[in-house]
Design brief:
about 160 residues, mainly alpha, about 0% strand, DUF5518, membrane
């Protein structure tokens, strides 16, 4: 079952209909890194910090708006945007991990290394959810909210 989901994800990533969603996810990476830069570059910061999800949420809203009337579906596009944008979260996590390992005891470093795969999977899943949430908002804005505006919408 899990293998079929991974094959489906691989097919979606290579599908040309989702190219814009993937590019928007890639475009969110520098903004996520920039807005979370204090996490890694703060000398007093060890083992923790915050990674902002705002750029990924905005990317999801954009993708949801763009894909709302496409047959490929805005929700799947939002998930792909989130997965693509999770590259920033993985990068920031790994940079923080290296900074933490170099400044803590060996026991804490081993625990941090052992927890890394689980933390990375949870980070990617959370990013996929944020992308999905943004896509739902963008889809709603295009299909429902814009119809309620007092002026006619140009098609």
């Amino acid at each position: 079952m899990a293998a079929s989901r991974l094959q489906e994800l691989r097919a979606d990533i290579t599908d040309e209909s989702y190219r814009v969603a993937i590019l928007v996810g890639i475009a969110s990476i520098p903004f996520t890194v920039f807005l979370s830069r204090g996490l890694v570059f703060d000398e007093g910061q060890i083992a923790g910090g915050r990674i902002t999800g705002s750029p990924l949420l905005v990317a999801g809203v954009v993708v949801g708006y763009l894909y709302s009337e496409r047959p490929s579906g805005s929700r799947r596009a939002g998930v792909l945007t989130g997965i693509t944008g999770s590259i920033a979260v993985v990068l920031l996590y790994l940079l923080n991990l290296f900074a933490t390992i170099s400044s803590v005891s060996q026991w804490v470093a081993v625990v941090a290394l052992l927890a890394t795969p689980l933390a990375l999977v949870l980070g990617v899943l959370l990013c996929a959810f944020v992308g999905l949430l943004g896509a739902v908002i963008g889809d709603w804005a295009r299909t429902t909210a814009l119809d309620r505006l007092p002026f006619p919408r140009k098609e």
